[in-house]
């Protein structure tokens, strides 16, 4: 029984991923949507870093007593920044590859 449930879940997950991919690559989207999503993602990372900075400051001042909460927020901020940095590096690498393609 568990195997068939997992197969159904995997099938549903695959269908969901395919739907999302089709939506992302459909011609109905404009460049404004992409730039808006990128700005939103960068703003989310910036907010995460600001939140980590503020909670660290609060901990140092004694306003926050939960060290686990502070460390978790710092890790979330760090992971978000690392992911943003990796995406930027991949985009730059792709751009360089395209520019070096023979015509």
Topology, please?
Layout: H1 2-25, H2 31-61, H3 67-99
Helix pairs in contact: 2-3
What is the structure about, briefly put?
The chain has 103 residues and is mostly helical. 85% of the residues lie in helices and 0% in strands. It has a domain at 29-99.
Description of the molecule:
- The chain is 85% helix and 0% strand.
- With 103 residues, it is mainly α.
- The chain has a domain at 29-99.
- Helix 2 packs antiparallel against helix 3.
- The chain is extended.
- The model is unreliable at 1-6 (pLDDT under 50).
The total of helices stands at 3
* Gyration radius, in Å: 20 Å
Proportion of residues in extended strands: under 5%
Which structural category do the helix and sheet elements fall into? mainly alpha
What's the SSE pattern?
A: HHH
Backbone shape: extended
Strand count, sense and closure of the main sheet? none
**Ends distance:** 56 Å
Share of residues in helices = over 70%
Estimate the mean pLDDT confidence. 82
What is the number of E strands? Answer: 0
Taking pLDDT < 50 over at least 5 consecutive residues as the criterion, the unreliable ranges are 1-6
